[in-house]
Design goal:
Spore Coat Polysaccharide Biosynthesis Protein SpsA, Chain A, five-stranded mixed sheet, alpha/beta
Length: about 280
């Protein structure tokens, strides 16, 4: 049995549409866990009234993504889940999404499997996993190296976000939960997949399973798209900052091979400090 774990906070419309999409799946052998971290917009009431089969765990509002996800994972493990999927409420899974994920999980039962992401508005494929080089400090996107005829089946990756990641329960039993102490928000999923690979698990992106996402809804993307000194500081040091230097350095210290550690950290810090503005210039040009 798959348990889908989704933390939510004050995005009732997104959560509702997300749950509707999961309700239209071609298979039904999964359960949904929503961890509502103190929403004040009626999210919990909506779930209780319109989606009574959803497992709703109510929290007090002092959590972030990693620990809210851990609460759902602990619950699922207690219910004897075979697989746990982490999935965000700002996604719309295709009607055959779970079916396609199950198909490949049966063929590769001890691997972590992510899904292909499409832009909700344009329907274009925008993310299919990436491979990180500790030596160069760069990540290459799998999509960039594929022809149209190759965009199907599984493609091995070394880095994948928690958005739509199917995880065998024995992964958590071997490497532990998300590191919510060091990475309460961003970087927690990166750290988790690094630890999984370091412990012998493989990760793939399933190009047959699709989810639609809203790229601009991410808080980190909002900070990038709206350039200002305040947003720049939040980008580098804030809880929602995609370039949070503290978390980047901690994740590097935990996971990067020692022979590449210094150069990897230096390159990563520099790219985060100047990349915020350079990326903005590229968008304007």
């Amino acid at each position: 049995m798959i348990y889908i774990v989704t933390p939510v906070f004050n995005r009732k419309t997104f959560t509702k549409n997300y749950l509707k999409a999961l309700g239209k799946q071609t298979v039904g052998n999964f359960k949904i866990i929503i961890v509502d971290d103190g929403s004040s917009d009626g999210t919990s009431d909506m779930i209780e009234n319109e989606f009574p089969d959803v497992i709703l765990l109510k929290e007090d509002g002092d959590l972030w993504w990693a620990e809210a996800t851990n609460i759902g994972v602990r619950y699922a493990i207690g219910q004897k889940a075979n697989y746990i999927m982490t999935l965000n409420d700002d996604t719309l899974p295709a009607f055959d999404y779970i079916e396609k994920m199950l198909y490949w999980s049966k063929k590769k039962p001890d691997t972590l499997i992510g899904a292909l992401a499409l832009d909700h508005d344009t329907n274009e494929i925008i993310y299919g996993g990436e491979n990180r080089s500790w030596k160069t400090g760069r990540s290459s996107y799998v999509l960039d190296g594929l022809s149209e005829n190759e965009k199907f089946g599984l493609h091995e990756v070394s880095l994948f976000p928690g958005r739509g990641l199917l995880i065998p329960v024995n992964t958590f039993k071997k490497i532990g939960l998300y590191d919510s102490k060091n990475f309460p928000q961003t970087m927690a999923d990166n750290d988790f997949t690094h630890r999984a690979i370091n412990n012998g698990f493989k990760i793939f992106c399933n190009y047959d399973a699709k989810i639609k996402i809203y790229p601009d809804e991410s808080a980190a993307v909002t900070l990038q798209n709206n350039k200002s000194l305040k947003n720049y500081i939040d980008h580098l040091f804030g809880m929602k900052g995609g370039g949070n230097l503290k978390w980047f350095i901690k994740c590097s210290l935990k996971n990067c091979p020692k022979r590449y550690l210094l150069s990897f950290i230096v390159k990563g810090v520099v790219s985060r400090i100047i990349g915020y503005w350079i990326n903005g210039l590229r968008k304007k040009s």
